[in-house]
Amino acid sequence: MAQQDTEQSGVLPVDDDGFVIDTEDCEERETAYRERGTSRPITVVGNPVLHKECRDVTEFGDDLAKLVDDMFASQRTAEGVGLAANQIGVDLKVFVYDCGDDEGRRHVGVVCNPVLVELPADRRRLDDSNEGCLSVPTAYASLARPDYAEVTGQDEKGNPIKVRGTGYFARCLQHETDHLYGYLYIDRLSKRERKDALRQMAENEPRYPVVAND
């Protein structure tokens, strides 16, 4: 098993294919992030920060570390499995995740400046499971996405990383990357399905603090 060539703390090891090993010490790592952070309310559909491409992360210092901690705290409060920075009102390309895959493995990590790897046609098997979003609270809809995903980017220290996932975790990687380019999952639905999701949201109360749209 290869190790990233760095002495910085908090950097995940990588496997022989160069992908981060984000399944080890998940509880300890997530707890450390979360306990340093402060939970923030979630922005919801209609907030302008959710509907435009975010800025690239260019500085990997204390401000970013604090943001990541707050994101993990906010994600736990909202009982989510992934959270993009613009979901707490911050216009930066970073997301965090604490998500299981279809094999029952837990994944915990951070990705800055994510880019989804385009899969060849013979590797694109679609899964049309239900999808939800903390920024569209209480609404769910079936959405077909590839059941495998690879994302390239950087960790919170600025090191280049690759992350891959299957099943539910693959959906999470695609969903959160979409956020940072200004897309919500409901933007990928038909007009009728989108209208139904917004109706579900309007008819129910979120279980976590949200930022009201003026």
From TrEMBL:
Gene3D superfamilies of this UniProt entry? Peptide deformylase
The EC number(s) attached to this protein equal 3.5.1.88
The protein's matches in Pfam families, at most eight in alphabetical order, are given as: Pep_deformylase (PF01327)
Identify the InterPro entries for this entry: Peptide_deformylase, Peptide_deformylase_sf
Q: Which residues form the active site?
A: E176
The family database entries (CDD domains) matched by this protein are listed as: Pep_deformylase
Q: Which EC class is the enzyme in?
A: hydrolase
Q: Does the keyword Hydrolase apply?
A: yes
UniProt-annotated binding residues for Fe cation: C133, H175, H179
Cofactor(s) needed for function? Fe(2+)
Q: Does the keyword Iron apply?
A: yes
Q: How is the cofactor bound?
A: Binds 1 Fe(2+) ion.
Q: Which reaction is recorded as catalysed by this protein?
A: N-terminal N-formyl-L-methionyl-[peptide] + H2O = N-terminal L-methionyl-[peptide] + formate
What UniProt keywords are attached to this protein's entry?
Hydrolase, Iron, Metal-binding, Protein biosynthesis
Q: Which SUPFAM superfamilies match?
A: Peptide deformylase
A GO term, aspect molecular function: metal ion binding
> Which BP terms from GO are recorded?
translation
Q: What's the domain of life for this entry? A: Bacteria
Please explain the role this protein plays, according to its UniProt record.
Removes the formyl group from the N-terminal Met of newly synthesized proteins. Requires at least a dipeptide for an efficient rate of reaction. N-terminal L-methionine is a prerequisite for activity but the enzyme has broad specificity at other positions.
> What family is this?
Belongs to the polypeptide deformylase family.
Record-given protein name: Peptide deformylase
Which organism does this sequence originate in? Answer: Streptomyces sporangiiformans
